[in-house]
Design brief:
heterodimer, A: 121 residues, mainly beta, seven-stranded mixed beta sheet, four-stranded antiparallel beta sheet, globular, B: mainly beta, six-stranded mixed beta sheet
Chain lengths: 121, 109
Amino acid sequence: EVQLVESGGGLVQPGGSLRLSCAASGFTFSSYWMSWVRQAPGKGLEWVANIKQDGSEKYYVDSVKGRFTISRDNAKNSLYLQMNSLRAEDTAVYYCARDFEGSSPSPLGYWGQGTLVTVSS
Amino acid sequence: EIVLTQSPATLSLSPGERATLSCGASQSVSSSYLAWYQQKPGLAPRLLIYDASSRATGIPDRFSGSGSGTDFTLTISRLEPEDFAVYYCQQYGSSPPWTFGQGTKVEIK
């Protein structure tokens, strides 16, 4: 069974940093693109970033470019999101998601339960 | 960036009725790489439809997707009580970002 478990969320002050982690199990982690998607309270879904199987390609939504960094450790079956210079508008539940299929392009077929990041003073 | 616009924002229907949700794209979606997701309160989204018309694993056949280019539709043939939720479309075929629509809430009338 595919499992994705996020951790690392919490309350952080504006301008601060936070590192999210996603532990993957139940599949060959190194065979899939992985993504982060966020959802502000009461709002819709926003794709944030994704990373290729070997980490050689990474893409970001414009609003986080230069502030967020996606990475992965295939030996540890883990996905990360380093978030710096956080703003109030980054407040959201952050979901880790796996591509549905191993070949690109592919929708997001499996999701974690999400971790809440709150940016506030 | 491709902008996806969903309509209506809210759909009020009774169990057993047919639901038709629309998703319009600001430019053509490459190779119909469009997906639909269902989200219930407090839960993560669930993939329903991909490549515009293919049902994901375990999705009941009352859910169907259609469309191409800039106009896409999700149809729920007969609403079950568990189908009342928010539905999002997403394109994943062009260059990033892989954008989502703003969502359509299907509520009980």
